[in-house]
Amino acid sequence: MQRIAPRGFSLLEVLSALALLSLLLLGVFYGIRTATRSVNTGSAALERNDEARSLQQFLRRDLMQARALPWKLDAKGDGVVFEGEPRSMRFVAPLPGYLDRAGPQLQALALVDDGKGALKLELGSAPLTSGGASAAFESESLAEGVRGGRFRYYGRDREGAEASWRDRWNVAGRTPELVTIELERGKADEGNKAGREDATAWLWLQAPIRQNPYALNVGALAKALDGAKP
């Protein structure tokens, strides 16, 4: 009986098998890559949310402790206790945590240019003395990569007046009743350094000022400031 020799694979069959294996491996690779991207995107979103939540809690607690203590005099000689601009504000409050042992500090919260086509949120503080506040501020960055934002203030000019929202607060002797902070984040490409078209809302908070504007005699305290009339 004649034995039939085993037949091997042809070159075409080997190439076809390799092509199918390559397609299978390619599908597995893209599946893993997609899953990795989804995990990284979710992790980045959680980190952004956690950062925004922590910053929101910090700023709300800081603003809620603002005190009507004057640190300078305006053009009329009245004591200034709160100064607000669209992207900066100054107020007196104790620092958080163990730092409050130093007593009330003049704090400066501001959105400043980071030199990279974006903004950063900074908080500075200076010791408050009987004669006013020190001019030397020690600033710390609270958030970077900010593409836009603004501060707004709600309050009244005097007792009995109608309260309203405004972009600036320059009412001597009074603190606003509410402060709103809005921040945006996003990516900026080469043709859009400001990144406004890609900016999305990232942080929004509204903090009440707890201290009543009449809780302290601002006029009497202002007389101790440098430059006050005897």
Concise account of the structure shown:
The chain is α+β, with helices and mostly antiparallel strands and 230 residues long.
* End-to-end CA span: 131 Å
Low-confidence stretches: 188-195
Overall spatial form: rod-shaped
Main β-sheet, in a few words?
9 strands, antiparallel
Q: Structural class, please? A: alpha+beta
Helix content: 25-40%
Give helix and strand order, one letter per element, not per position. Answer: HEEEEEEEEEEEH
**Total count of domains:** 1
> Proportion of β residues?
25-35%
* Strands, total number: 11
Characterization of this structure:
The protein has one domain (52-222). Helix content is 26%, strand content 33%. The chain contains 2 helices and 11 strands. The longest helix is centred in the first third of the chain and has 54 residues, at 11-64. Mean pLDDT is 81; it is low at 188-195.
Walk me through the topology:
Elements: H1 11-64, E1 72-73, E2 79-80, E3 82-85, E4 88-94, E5 104-113, E6 119-129, E7 132-133, E8 138-155, E9 164-166, E10 178-185, E11 200-208, H2 218-222
Antiparallel strand pairs: 1-2, 3-4, 4-5, 5-6, 6-7, 6-8, 8-9, 8-10, 10-11
